[in-house]
Amino acid sequence: MKLGDLKPPQGARKKSKRIGRGEGSGHGGTSTRGHKGQKARSGGKVSRGFEGGQMPMQRRLPKRGFKNPFRKEYEVVNIRDLTRFPAGTVVDLAALKASGLIKKIRWGVKVLGDGSINHPLTVQAHHFTLTAQNKIEAAGGKTEVL
Fold this sequence. Notes:
CATH 3.100.10.10, alpha/beta, elongated, 3 helices, 3-stranded parallel beta sheet
């Protein structure tokens, strides 16, 4: 047996529909497009969201609010989450990522003041709330803005 002898099994390969090749082919006349209408015309496509002349859904529903395209979403870390680090360590972005507190840094990391801390840490982040900064410094630690 050679590669040239290989053939697909009987009935596996179907002849393609030859559309618009005369009445004798069985696909002449309207060429499987039905009768008249937008989709029967050449280039007759229905645009996305078109509902046959009825007012489309995206125009019927009321619009509310405002979505700021320039909004910056910071990764958030609370003071209570920093208690897992031993005293005297430098908590930087790599340490936060390794511990699973942040997934990926889009705009930066912000430390919030929820919870309490009672051992000194050097925390490096892009932003600190005033309460977070006060709590870290009250425990004997330092805050470094990146």
